[in-house]
Amino acid sequence: MEEVLEYLRECGTFYLATMDDDQPRVRPFGALGIFEGKLYTSTSNVKNVFAQMIKNPKVEISGMSKDGSWIRLTAVAVRDDRIEARQHLLEDNPSLKSLYAADDGKYEVF
């Protein structure tokens, strides 16, 4: 898992694909971390991506490195409502601290 995290961080931006009913939706993401041995990402519960992952948790993540290599991950997004998980992701992604707090009621981790 550490190797996957390192690779995606080297990419800088990776892309998360969800389903919006019968329409695929892809958007850039950057926040990642490992918590309890699992790869995590985060979003706000007021965004469409959150609703899409709740409705259909099957997602794919893709990223391309500067050397032209790429990765694609297929996963099931599992919401983790623990404050410890949210705090961990904020510590791993300090740029998000200007947008979210672990206890703000809108920050979510998967």
UniProtKB/TrEMBL annotation:
Pfam families: PNPOx_N (PF01243). Coiled coil: none annotated. It comes from the Bacteria. Residues 2-99 form the Pyridoxamine 5'-phosphate oxidase N-terminal domain. InterPro entries: Pyridox_Oxase_N, Split_barrel_FMN-bd. This is Pyridoxamine 5'-phosphate oxidase N-terminal domain-containing protein.
